[in-house]
Amino acid sequence: MRAVLMAGGSGTRLRPLTCDLPKPMVPILNRPIAEHIINLLKRHNINEVIATLHYLPDALRDYFQDGADFGVQMTYAVEEDQPLGTAGCVKNIAELLDETFLVISGDSITDFDLTGAIEFHKQQKSKATLILTRVPNPIEFGVVITDSYGRINRFLEKPSTSEIFSDTVNTGTYILEPEVLDYLPENTESDFSSFLFPLLLAKGEPMYGYIAKGYWCDVGHLDAYRESQYDALERKVKLDVAYNEVSPGLWVGQNTYIDQSAKIEPPVVIGDNCRIGARVQIEAGSVVGDNVTIGADASLKRPIVWNGAILGDEAHLSACVIARGTRVDRRAHVLEGAVVGSLSTVGEEAQISPFVRVWPSKKIESGATLNLNLIWGNTAQRNLFGQRGVQGLANIDITPEFAVKLGAAYGSTLKPGSKVTVSRDQRNISRMVTRSLIAGLMSVGIDIQNLDATAIPITRTVIPTMGVAGGIHVRVHPDRADYILIEFMDDKGINLSKPKEKKIEGAFFKEDMRRALIHEVGDVAYPSQVADIYCMAFEKFLHIDTIRNSRAKVVIDYVYAVSGAVLPQMLDQFGADAVVLNASLNKSAMSATNREGLLTQLGHVVEALKANFGIQVSANGEQLILVDESGMPIRGEILTALMVDMVLTSHPRGAVVVPVHASSAVEQIARRHDGKVIRTKANPTALMEACNKNPNVMLGGSGDTGFIFPELHPGFDAMFCIAKIIEMLTIQERSLASVRSELPRVIHKTYTVRCPWTVKGALMRYLVETHPAQNLELIDGVKICQPYDDSWILVLPDASEPLVHLYINSNDRDWVDSTLRDYRARVQMFIEREEEAVVAEV
């Protein structure tokens, strides 16, 4: 059986707890209400759950994802434009409900016997069965009267005192047959209680009420929220507690430290990674979240404290709610019924009076007494991770304070005592940011393997050999000299996946970070022979004798910006002659114009020395531009095609991985060698993951990103690429110029159009709807292919700017030019039309 979890509520009466959190995600015993409902469904063998979402839908989706971690299969239906009501949102997913299904509210705590209710529904051959319960005061609920067989005779939604005709109320949980949804209008707001059930009653459809025994609490207001926690602690309701019961009525999470002098009176729940100081008193009925720090002599009398809160010495909390990431400073008092919203600060010796509510991100000054609600003001939050890592203006967006917090957030997603490598380029700004990241990591109990200034290919090579949980690399952005780029890697050296990035973002924005005790603070080690590990791996995957016999002469331009310049020494050992240019370390980044000047200079040096080729290395050892023996630069799509040709010549029937926008010359070359082309999204992480997952991959990447040789390590590596080129040219007895002359002649053009963020999605939908499905590829953006041809146009939204990129590719120059004109006009016209429509609505 499938269950529909109605989780779209905004929980207005629970504010400020729901200002930045949907009602079903509000925690009971440190786990969201929705998780307790899913546990109940599982206990009754209901494992397929469709959640209907409206208010802040990403919070619930990001937490449960596909449901696998919770033992269920989760799917989602989002009411985008307007709320459709309790019945309308279920009608919206009618095609998924082809047999008896259960609807359950996402904001109640219960342990009802759902199995018994389902059996009753089937025995009575009911079309709609309402699960009912008896309550002392039914004014806030829908009242129902049934006959002796359970058939519903009458009900009234939220009656006044004079209208009450029963103490039996509707709990918002229903068992329905799919045909009852036929009575509901399409895409129209409607409710079960006020529309569908009266209609079914009037039509004479069999509708029954199952009076359930057990606990039920509608968590509709702040008093009910606190009471449901106390009831759960006193075992009045059967809920799964996420922690071990270390003694009767005392549940304590992992890695939590409680000072021996602290006094705790059960029942009490204390989460993971908490620190309870000396002489702290915690009375029965208290709930303490994960990653909470409580200072010495603090007093907790039945408060509910969410994750990441920090309570100072001698703080006093009485039957209040302290939301996530909130700080209550020394000797501050938060009194009965008060609620402090997330990320707020209550200053030293301040007092929040009974039943006062403080909205998120507020600051109560030291010594102040707050007697009135402090209403919520907007706070600006941005996504941390972009297309590639965390990036921003150096010392403006990426400051030392920011980096400390980012390091602590990343470390909080790892187990205490884990090890992380940290490396950087040689810039002073990178050193500053790296040291701040290290401080943040140490503060949450993470040990550091500090590689200092190191080329990023070396970092990726050594990570799998060091038993670390991951790595961080800091550098000036390859494309913007005023930007810092911080990349996070997993234990294989691959950039983190999106779900792992989301975890770091969650810890950062929620300030949900643990704090290590003094003796738990992380250590810093400086491993030696890091370059040697790289050199040994490097040599393992090369034909050294071939390079030695080649007597190759290459010119390497480091553009004053290399860390760990190990390549010339290795080439010298292999018998090749490497001439190095501009290898001194310059603290300031090189402009694009100056870099082009150095590329021209490199061409002249290659010609003068009669070298085999030249290379300009950039992006801290990841990217390169080649210069052939005549001094001509090879970059971009030509470089991609040239590398694919040489690699597949050496490894026929091998596979190569390229981004979605790479030229179709790659496929034409692969056909020559019976090879396979795998295309991925345009971001570097997708390229790395595809190279790692697919079998028989010999090469990945492009001229713009750099090249991956998966046998060595999972990242881009200009240094290994240079040695491999020497090897391949020698074995194949070719020069770069001769390889270049044999490449397919493919016309590949690009054009960029400004496109507001709000229009990007509509533009993609328009392109999909106006082209035959068989001509579309939707790997990344929308690629419109010509049948039986290598001609295509790709419309790709920029991941970090309000831009859309057009890539046009064909063997036919006229087709490329006409298609570019056509789609440029089509895209611009659509954007203008959408913008005009927005103005008209305003």
Q: Topology, please?
A:
Elements: E1 2-6, E2 27-28, E3 31-32, H1 33-43, E4 48-53, H2 57-64, E5 73-78, H3 85-91, E6 101-105, E7 108-110, H4 114-123, E8 128-134, E9 143-146, E10 152-156, E11 168-176, H5 192-203, E12 207-211, E13 216-218, H6 222-233, E14 244-247, E15 250-252, E16 257-258, E17 263-264, E18 268-270, E19 275-276, E20 281-282, E21 287-288, E22 293-294, E23 299-301, E24 304-305, E25 310-311, E26 316-318, E27 321-322, E28 327-328, E29 333-334, E30 339-340, E31 345-346, E32 351-352, E33 357-358, E34 363-364, E35 369-370, E36 390-393, H7 400-412, E37 419-424, H8 428-443, E38 447-453, H9 456-462, E39 470-476, E40 483-489, H10 498-510, E41 524-525, H11 530-540, H12 544-550, E42 553-557, H13 567-573, E43 577-581, H14 592-609, E44 613-618, E45 623-627, E46 633-634, H15 636-650, E47 655-659, H16 665-672, E48 676-680, H17 684-693, E49 697-702, E50 706-708, H18 718-732, H19 736-741, E51 747-754, H20 757-769, E52 776-777, E53 782-785, E54 792-797, E55 803-810, H21 813-841
Parallel strand pairs: 1-4, 1-6, 4-5, 8-12, 15-18, 16-19, 17-20, 18-21, 19-22, 20-23, 21-24, 22-25, 23-26, 24-27, 25-28, 26-29, 27-30, 28-31, 29-32, 30-33, 31-34, 32-35, 37-38, 37-39, 38-41, 42-43, 42-44, 47-48, 47-49
Antiparallel strand pairs: 2-3, 6-11, 7-13, 8-11, 9-10, 14-15, 36-40, 39-40, 44-45, 45-46, 49-50, 51-55, 52-53, 53-54, 54-55
Helix pairs in contact: 7-8, 7-10, 9-11, 12-18, 15-16, 15-18
Domain EIF2B subunit epsilon/gamma LbH: 252-352
GO molecular function, one term: nucleotidyltransferase activity
Domain Alpha-D-phosphohexomutase alpha/beta/alpha: 383-513, 534-631, 636-743
